[in-house]
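Reminder: ligand-aware prediction takes two inputs, not one.
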Amino acid sequence: MFLTIALLCVLNALAAFAQLSGSVGPTTSRASKQATICSVLSYGGSVGSSDIGPAIQSAFNNCVLTNKGSTLYIPPGNYNMATWVTLKGATQWALQLDGIITRTATTGGHMIVVQNANDFEMWSSTSAGAIQGNGYQCRNAGPRLLRIITSENFSLHDLIFVDSPEFHVIIDNSSNGELYNLAIRGADIGGSDGIDLSGSNVWVHDVEVTNRDECVTIKNPSSNHQIERIWCNQSGGSAIGSLGSGTTIENILYRNIYTNGGDQMFMIKTNGGDGYVRNVVLDQFLGLGTAYGLDIDEFWSSASTAPGNGVVLSDITFSNWNGYITDGSRRSAYRVLCPSAAPCTDITISDVYLWAENNAGTYACESAYGSGACLQSGSGSGYSQVTTSYTKPAAYVSPTALSGNLASGFATNSPIPIPTIPTTFYPGLPQISPLAKNSGGGATPTSTGSSSGSTSGTAAQYAQCGGIGYTGPTTCASPYTCTYTNDYYSQCI
Ligand SMILES: *[C@@H]1O[C@H](CO)[C@@H](O)[C@H](O)[C@H]1NC(C)=O
Ligand SMILES: *[C@@H]1O[C@H](CO)[C@@H](O)[C@H](O)[C@H]1NC(C)=O
Ligand SMILES: *[C@@H]1O[C@H](CO)[C@@H](O)[C@H](O)[C@H]1NC(C)=O
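Here is what comes back for the chain with 2-acetamido-2-deoxy-beta-D-glucopyranose:
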């Protein structure tokens, strides 16, 4: 009885955290996208091609667009690419990249744009498909790798993005998406964003990023995103921002975010502007040797000041953090700096234990209200920055080092090798869906949007076993237990 009540409480607490607003991922099964295989090899492409771009565009125009239920297939092998493609307006299709595409031209824009896609899956069945940007040859003066624009009901998974001349992956104003099992490896320099995300109802999980800019970052406008099990392995760090005029961001959950080195454990960055960021939960973060820790900076000097009194931040919760910054004398591990004309309210800092390698700790608060650190209680008008020293929190423990943590980032002027996609992204937690290569080339549908499945039988280890819209087996094969992840996904672990 007590156990049942305790369990219900835990489930309720988790449900309150889940920020997705509906199912994510493609609405039909992978098999229903394989009625027609549109291989680039049938549309003028060849393995070893000096420019696979025209064959990709031709396979899309002449095969995908004319055959609902098709897969644009790029088989294993190496391809150069010098002509960028825009794949616009298809429904119920897949882009299966099992080969490696290497950028050769320096034209700006994006190597691959997917636009107005619906019921779409972009993936690699070998978990080894990659785009190599060789950004060291044209640093910040070439294309970005992938942009998905105003698309719906999609997934992006089991792919590797390396050394983009500029940003790696941009999800632009898209909804009902699932991004998972991705490795992104850029150079140790600004302008190398990992994933920039705007839109609504997108679930990002099990992603590793190395670079010196955004890890997995939310841009305006955004609502109902859930970001979890992220390994920022020598990355700039994750953030919301930078934000200016007309900001509308709400219902965001980040959880199980592991940041090794880099700029911050998490940052909300604005400079002037207006609008709001509200109902954000940042739960279970680990940080090792970042420059900043918990960082709300509404005077973000790297962005120019937008007109307005400032973006209003409210109902932001930081809970269950552990980590250390490098230099607590130079920087405050806890910073909540808000504009006097738009104070922050309902900020909660709870069970957040941050320390510094040089054993110095300060909090900095300005025009910020709530509980924890140096926040003032209640609400009120703006106040000047107050910096307070603190001693090492009794509950602080040095976070676990994951094997494979990078000691430093990658050089900006030499090639970056293509990594493999890891299977763990946060200490002690398995990945939510197995790599496609470990599940029979992804024969088992892993996304919650899949319509296949049957209620009889048992679900295997790591398989889905519950969630809104799920119709497959809800009992796990022994000895696994059906474990709640969010309202849309439970898994046998
Ligand atoms: C995406 O899926 C949702 C839920 O299944 C559905 O309501 C919506 O119409 C789909 N979007 C499009 C463009 O079909
Ligand atoms: C975002 O997408 C919606 C359709 O989903 C569209 O109506 C709107 O104009 C788009 N906004 C921008 C800024 O592209
Ligand atoms: C982090 O980088 C190191 C060094 O390249 C690598 O060995 C390790 O696998 C990376 N971690 C992940 C999760 O890829």
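The chain has a mean pLDDT of 91. The radius of gyration is 22 Å. We will return to this case in the review session.
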